[in-house]
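pls ignore typos typing on phone
adenosine-5'-diphosphate + seq
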Amino acid sequence: MTNVDGAVIVSKNLRHSYGVGELRTQILHGLDFAVNAGEVTLLVGPSGSGKSTLLTLIGALRSVEEGSLKVLGQELSGSSESDRVQIRRRIGFIFQSHNLVASLTVLQNVQLLLQLNEPDPKARVEKACNLLEAVGLSHRLYHYPDELSGGQRQRVAIARALAPEPELILADEPTASLDSQSGQDVVELLGDLCRRRRSAVLLVTHDLRLLKDADRIWRIEDGRVNPWQPDIAATAP
Ligand code: ADP
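k done
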């Protein structure tokens, strides 16, 4: 079922707990799953089921304590902080808080991460403009984040995450602040780009309208993860 050769994320018996001593609570109880290059994978599950915890483990933002988690070929269990920094540089993050720089324009925000891998300033501007056009924001290039709606800010965050052409994109509820049509447009855009570049998108969502745009769906519940079939998903409550 899972093509491990093309896998960008492979987790084996991954466990995670919070707290110490009597307060220690296990959240993830041994997850086995994979995410493949060139696919949009959704991670769904009830609130509190551990989706964000898992996303931060995959994003090398939190240490892996038990089990194995390989991301972009790097084992994160037992990895050093400098290994994790290297992995983070290869990942595009789209989190709910946007984290746009308030003092920079939309165009400057999208160019920010390009400075590391695109030395030519003209090429940087062109690339950023193309991405902003793709997310429907060509008319907002010189606006500042606080002049935009929540949905527009989210689209800037998406363009910025895509700009350095990361091999893996991690998105936490990226459509939460978008209306239905914009949400679907954004996921279609992510899907188009990831299939063309053979990168992978892992998207945490509650938005059941996105199920049809996914290549694969994993559902996490009671600390375990299982594949979820879209036809079953479509009829599930
Ligand atoms: P989801 O993203 O599916 O809503 P989370 O990963 O945010 O789930 O949380 C899973 C569980 O872990 C919840 O019960 C939450 O209260 C708990 N939790 C999350 N972060 C922490 C933390 N830093 N310390 C202790 N418990 C936490």
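DSSP finds seven helices and ten strands in the chain. Residues 1-90+166-180+200-237 form a domain with the Rossmann fold fold (CATH 3.40.50.300). more later
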